[in-house]
Description:
Blueprint: H1 13-60, H2 70-80, H3 89-95, H4 99-111, H5 118-169, H6 175-181, H7 183-187, E1 193-197, E2 202-205, H8 207-213, H9 217-220, H10 233-240, E3 242-250, E4 256-266, E5 275-280, H11 287-297, H12 308-322, E6 329-336, H13 339-346, H14 348-365, E7 371-376, E8 379-384, H15 390-403, E9 408-410, E10 413-415, E11 419-426, H16 433-449, E12 455-457, H17 460-476, E13 485-494, E14 500-511, E15 515-517, H18 519-529, H19 532-551, E16 560-564, H20 573-584, E17 591-596, H21 597-601, H22 605-616, E18 620-626, H23 632-638, E19 643-646, H24 648-651, H25 657-672, E20 676-680, H26 685-693, E21 698-700, E22 708-709, H27 710-719
Helix pairs in contact: 1-5, 2-4, 2-5, 3-5, 13-14, 14-15, 17-18, 19-20, 20-22
Amino acid sequence: MVEVKNQTGFSTSGMIRRRQLVPALVLLVCLAGYFSVSTQLLKDDSDLVLHLTTELSALNAMDPSSAGSLGPWLVQIRQLIPSIVLYDDPAAAALATPLEHLADKIRNAELVKPADQLSLRRELVLAEIALRSEQQRLHDAHVRQSAYFYVSVLAFVLLVLGALLRSRESSLAEPLRVLVRDQYLFSHAPVGVSLSDRDDRLIRINSGFEKVTGFNADELIGRPACEREPEGMRDALLRSGSWTGEYTMRRKDGSTVAEKVTRVAIGDDLDRPDGYLTISMDPVVSDDERQLMLWQAHHDSLTKLPNSNLLHERLVRALTTVQHEEKPGALISIDIDGFQRVNDSVGHEIADRILTEAAYRIAMSARESDTVARTGGDNFVIAMFEIDSVDEAERTAREAVESMNTPFYSEDRELFLSASAGLTIFPQDGLDRGELLQKADAACIQAKKRGGNQIAFFEEKMNSDAARRLEIETNLRRAIDNDELELHYQPIIDCATELVYGAEALLRWQSETLGFVSPGEFIPIAERCGLIVELGEWVVKEVATQLQSWAAIADWPALRVSLNVSARQFAVVEQAQSLLDVLQNAPTELLTVELTESALVANDPGASLFLTGLKEQGLRVALDDFGTGFSSISYLRDFEFDVLKIDKSFIDGVESSKEMGVIASIIAMGRILGMKIVAEGVETAGQVETLKRIGCDYIQGYYFCRPLPSAEFEAFVLQR
């Protein structure tokens, strides 16, 4: 061998021999690591086969009277591995059962009372074996891949260092040419690797990079390596020549994937490197394996519900957007009362089955759009986004608590449980994720202190309001049967003659338990709980009866009576038709139906049918509270109204020139459209004179008369 000396006088022959040993050492390290892992996996496989054999032997010797928990296992398997491939026909058949059929089996054989069927136990064991086999297969693949990955990364780094050393000793001035020349290095790396030029545009990628992004090399060459440069990366490359961090890459299907990568600047001049080497630190996995790992990272292993990680991610997004939207949200913290005693008395295995069933019941209480998460132990959280009202969150919390009152069955045991729930509303109670969760937990603790099996709001005022709403709803359901409702009539006065033209029928409630309850308090509750439909029909029948009674009075004028109809009464076609049928039996020539702008905003299916039906029956239609909505003019154009009622908020300022001009314009517009004008909420003589001067047709308000019971209203009419 010829010995060559370099410029420093050192011999290079020894360096060459040492460099030739590097590939051999790398190969030995890889083989040793891989065979070590394979030996351990063979031992694990043997243990699994022994375990499965024991399971099957136990199955054959099983007492037919014993029954297992078929339902939870099958549901968990189907949720854990939706695309599971089984090579055991009986096990595959057990998992091929439709979910609807499984639900029937669970309900009939497991949750109502223990089943005594050996076939169920056989399906359970086969399913359990299938699950453990699949889990073992995935585990083996993951261990092998991880071992190969880390050993290969070591080899890859050594080879890169060797290439860089070779480039330094070479007479070539461009290290990139040395790296690109090494085809083997790129083709066999178990991770995504890319090379970019000094402008950070891709000039080479390997197959691992193609798998991660879905693009092929031709589609990426020449494109920027970073679509969005991570913060701090450029400074680190300039300072030390390398950077490690999370790197977001866009895939061909439009999705993004976050990879942990290391970037190295190539060349001696860090201010102006020759290029960049990017190495992914995550092994390349299939989409199915990636999805499975992602699912497991965001879901509870026992109940299969979202875990705290997924809850926090969704909550952060919701809190970010709720600041720009009107609809609030709610967090409901739910604890099973005294569950530790259950754990101690029946053991962890049965307690886990009960916890799984409790999770299912809580999830069924929520909306499809809600997130139901298990945050630890026997604690669950329901995150409700974009709720219409606090009542909606309260109703969900009550349903979740009440779902625990049905007995739980496990084998030969019947267990009775209860739960407590705490509510917090955002953004009302804050916009910090941790603070809101803490407040919901505090409210839950408060519910437990009160004895459990109930709900509590975070703020005491909300607690009292919720209790009041529940009390009103409970008593309102009995109000009709108990004859607690009554109609009062407020006169509508003709501006020209100051005689009574008609009246508006207003519902009043004198409860035996609560005393007088304001319509502003009980009407919204009736609308939310659906009682408004029954109340509305009662009002129509009462008005019809009253009109017939007045018609029998001598010299009684033909007064028109207006009655209010809520949007909930005609939102559904069937309800709209039912209300029309009730109105048909009333003296329609003397009735006016008042609708608010808000009742027309939703554009419900029954609205068009209802309005058309009113006209066909000869009823007059009034647009109530005009001016309080967002599209008043469009309603006047699209619907044929007979009467326009100007809201009190306009009338309060009618004596000022500005407000008077607005009201005069409304009156003129109404006359052009052929409508009569009624001013609501008139309380002073000055308002009366101004309204007469600008041409208003009718006046309604306390200046002339407050709403009166029917007998007093009769006397008022006859006196005028």
